[in-house]
Description:
This protein is α/β, with parallel strands linked by helices. The protein has one domain (13-248): Chloramphenicol acetyltransferase-like domain (Chloramphenicol Acetyltransferase), CATH 3.30.559.10. It is built from 8 helices and 8 strands; from the N terminus they run H-E-H-H-E-E-E-E-H-H-H-H-E-E-E-H. The protein has helices at residues 13-25, 40-48, 55-69, 120-132, 139-148, 152-164, 167-174, 224-248; strands at 30-38, 75-78, 84-87, 92-101, 104-113, 177-179, 198-202, 210-218. Strands 1-8-7-6-4-5 form a 6-stranded mixed sheet, with helices on both faces. Strands 2-3 form a two-stranded antiparallel sheet. A hairpin with a 2-residue loop joins strand 4 and strand 5.
Amino acid sequence: MPQPTGFTMPLSLPRRLMCDYLHFAAAVPTVPLERKMNLAPLAQARERAKPRPGWSSLFTKAWGAVCARHAPLRRAYLGWPYPRLYQHPINVASVAVERPYGADDAVFFLHLCQPETLPLTEIDARVKWFKDRPLGSAAAVRRQLRMAGLPRPVRRLLWWVGLNFSGRQRARFFGTYGVTAYAGGGAASLHPLSLVTTTLSYGHVEADGQVVVRATYDHRALDGSTVARALGELERVLGHEVLAELRYLESPAAA
């Protein structure tokens, strides 16, 4: 019996964006590390908080606090005109956000400067704004779509220049660390490809507060022992500083 024939379609602008991202990320020698954390008090406080921030906002702020204290986590490898490391003075978080694009959903990147200094409610509001606003009303989305609309040789040249020439511009356009997760869908990424020095991801938070948190890092810029210690500090930041802020958001009835 003959098989039915499908059809081809051109790459959408978001798919072009992701293809370019992965083209360069595939050349980065990243290594994943994971740590199982007990975040039961944090999960309980989050349930009582009004408004209740998303887990992505909690991890974005907490990892920002860790990176702000440890300079190696803010370093990036630059390859031209000679191999070197660049250290950025502040954090720029690159948060992967899925949002509607036409009849499909697509991933765009929201950049947050020094998220460790922002209230959780503001981080969460920015993420939701980025996700729900009309497509053309976010400057970051317009910029990413404009880049994706250029001819492929021009795009790839601009990406290469942005990643290798200037550390300051690299941090501006790509961030200093990333946050991505599929926990809302009940899944976890084992080894996300990334352009930034560290990318944080996490799995589903279980009923008892257990969660596996992963940090994928660029081994050219830092070593695994640094990241392992940073994950330990991340658990402490979540369990103390972020927890304390969440408790301020608890409703009187819940308290």
